[in-house]
Specification:
Order of helices and strands: HEEEEEEEEEEEEEEEEEEHH
Helix content: 25-40%
Structural class: alpha+beta
Shape: elongated
Largest sheet: 9 strands, mixed
Number of strands: 18
Radius of gyration: 29 Å
Number of helices: 3
Strand content: 25-35%
Distance between the termini: 82 Å
Length: 317
C-alpha cells in the first residue's frame, strides 16, 4: 500500500500528538514531579519536636504514614526554603511510638519518595470521649482519644483508684475495658497512664453496683483507618477521571490512524478515520481547556488536597 505525502503527514501528526498527550499524563506519576527526599534530620524525634528534610523540589506539605496501622496518614504543614531543597516541620500529635514514613508533596497523587522517621515519644494520652457514661460492673466501656495505653485506672471522687485490664486498638485511638465486679457505686473518672504522661478524663462514669445492665448502643468498628478523607477522595477521583479521558483520546487517535493506514485506498474508510482523528483531537483540546479553566479557578481541583467540611461525631451521654 502506498500513501501520499498528505496522508502520511496527517497520520504522523496524529501519532505525535497522541504520544505527547500520553507523555504529559504519565510523566507526573512516573517521575513524581521530580520530588525527592535525600535525608532527614534527626532520624528519630518526639511529638512536637522539629525535623528537617533535605532533597529536591520539596513541598511545605508533609505526609507522615504509619505502615503498621493500615497506612494511617497524618498531614502537617512545614516551611520550605526558596529553592525547594529543605522543609522544616514540627512532628504533629496523635502519632504512636513507632517507625513512620515521611513524604513530601501537595497531595497523595503528587508526592515524593518516603524516608523513615522513628517517633520516640508520642506525648501524653488524650481522652476525647467515653461510652457509655452509665454502666454496671461487668459491662464494657470504650474510651476514645489519642495515644491511649492499656494502663488505665478508674478514679473515684474520694481519690481511690481501681485498676482495669483493657485492650488498645493498633492506632492507639480506642481503649476498651470492663468495669471491675467489686467496684462500689459512684462517679468515676478514667485515668490513662503512658511513659509520656498521665491524663484524667473530665467526663465521669456513673457506676451502679448491683443494678441491671443498661441498654448499650452498638458502635460498629468501621475499617476507616488508612483511607483518604472525603476531600482527598473527591480530588483523587477527579484527577484520575481527567487522566482516563486523556488515555481514551490517545487510544482513539491510535485506532483511527491504524484504520487510515490500512484503508488501502478505500475513500469511505479514510474519511471515517479522518473524522475520528478530528473528533479525538477536538476532545483533547476540550480536555486541556477544562483542565486550564479548573486550574485557574482553584489548583486544588486538579491534583491538590481538596478539603470538604465534615460532620464531627461526638459520643456522649
Amino acid at each position: 500500500m502506498k500513501l501520499d505525502m498528505k496522508t502520511y503527514f496527517s497520520i504522523t501528526s496524529a501519532y505525535v500528538l497522541s504520544f505527547i498527550l500520553l507523555f504529559v499524563l504519565i510523566t507526573p506519576y512516573a517521575l513524581g514531579s521530580g520530588r525527592l527526599i535525600e535525608s532527614i534530620d534527626p532520624t528519630s524525634a518526639a511529638v512536637g519536636s522539629t525535623v528537617k528534610i533535605t532533597g529536591t523540589n520539596l513541598s511545605n506539605s508533609i505526609f507522615i504514614i504509619d505502615p503498621k496501622t493500615g497506612g494511617n496518614t497524618q498531614n502537617t504543614t512545614g516551611t520550605v526554603n526558596a529553592d525547594l531543597t529543605q522543609t522544616t516541620f514540627s512532628v504533629p500529635g496523635n502519632l504512636r511510638r513507632a517507625s513512620h514514613i515521611v513524604k513530601s508533596g501537595p497531595s497523595l497523587t503528587d508526592i515524593s519518595n518516603g524516608i523513615s522517621l522513628l517517633i520516640t515519644s508520642a506525648g501524653a494520652p488524650v481522652i476525647e470521649a467515653i461510652h457509655p457514661l452509665r454502666t454496671v460492673p461487668g459491662d464494657p466501656v470504650t474510651v476514645y482519644g489519642f495515644n491511649l495505653t492499656n494502663d488505665a485506672r478508674l478514679k473515684s471522687e474520694d481519690g481511690l483508684e481501681y485498676s482495669v485490664s483493657g485492650t488498645v486498638s493498633r492506632s492507639a485511638k480506642e481503649l476498651r475495658f470492663e468495669i471491675p465486679s467489686d467496684i462500689p457505686t459512684g462517679l468515676y473518672s478514667v485515668v490513662v497512664i503512658s511513659p509520656d504522661g498521665t491524663t484524667e478524663s473530665s467526663q465521669k462514669i456513673n457506676i451502679n453496683n448491683g443494678g441491671e445492665p443498661f441498654n448499650r448502643i452498638i458502635r460498629p468498628n468501621l475499617p476507616t483507618e488508612g483511607l483518604p478523607g472525603l476531600g482527598q477522595l473527591v480530588a483523587i477521583i477527579f484527577t484520575w477521571s481527567i487522566n482516563l479521558l486523556g488515555i481514551v483520546v490517545f487510544v482513539m487517535i491510535f485506532y483511527a490512524g491504524f484504520k487510515w493506514a490500512t484503508a488501502a485506498g478505500n475513500t469511505a474508510r479514510v474519511n471515517e478515520a479522518r473524522g475520528q482523528i478530528s473528533n479525538a483531537i477536538l476532545g483533547a483540546i476540550i480536555l486541556l481547556s477544562a483542565w486550564i479553566i479548573l486550574n485557574t479557578i482553584n489548583p486544588d481541583l486538579v491534583g491538590g488536597t481538596l478539603t470538604l467540611p465534615g460532620i464531627e461525631a461526638r459520643i456522649g451521654e
